[in-house]
Q: What sequence folds into this?
């Protein structure tokens, strides 16, 4: 006499559990990205808002740090969609201007506000926080 157990409901419940965990990971990555981008925005340089400054001889001269759009780089923060490839989740985020990368990399530039390596600095400071974001979202998944 053969006996058997129908485990299809159990398998289905595990699939739902897996989906809930994946969704929690996606939410955690999105929230972490927003946090990193907010920190990078604080560090992001702002060009000088005054087109003229007083030169060394005491006369007004054209300000070399004036680009006509103070705060434009900061306001160009952008986050892409989260992409899943197999077991890997990824997202692109940063600042969307043609000069965002050069401003990030130019360590010789001086800005009235902000700094070079604004993305790198924020990301390096925030990476240790990711497990907290993940833990918070996974704790919301019903067992």
A:
């Amino acid at each position: 006499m053969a006996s058997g157990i129908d485990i299809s409901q159990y398998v289905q419940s595990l699939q739902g559990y897996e989906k809930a965990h994946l969704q929690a990971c996606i939410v955690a990555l999105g929230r972490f990205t927003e946090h990193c981008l907010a920190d990078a925005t604080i560090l992001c340089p702002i060009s000088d808002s005054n087109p003229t400054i007083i030169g060394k001889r005491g006369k007004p001269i054209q300000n070399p740090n004036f680009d006509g759009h103070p705060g434009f780089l900061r306001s160009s923060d952008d986050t892409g969609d989260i992409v899943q490839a197999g077991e890997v989740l990824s997202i692109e985020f940063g600042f969307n201007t043609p000069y965002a990368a050069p401003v990030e990399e130019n360590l010789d530039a001086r800005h009235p506000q902000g700094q070079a390596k604004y993305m790198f600095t924020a990301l390096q400071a925030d990476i240790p926080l990711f497990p907290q974001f993940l833990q918070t979202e996974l704790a919301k998944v019903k067992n």
Remarks:
- The longest helix spans residues 8-43.
- Residues 8 and 14 are 10 Å apart (CA to CA).
- The helical segments are 8-43, 100-105, 118-126, 130-139.
- Residues 1-5 have pLDDT under 50 and may be disordered.
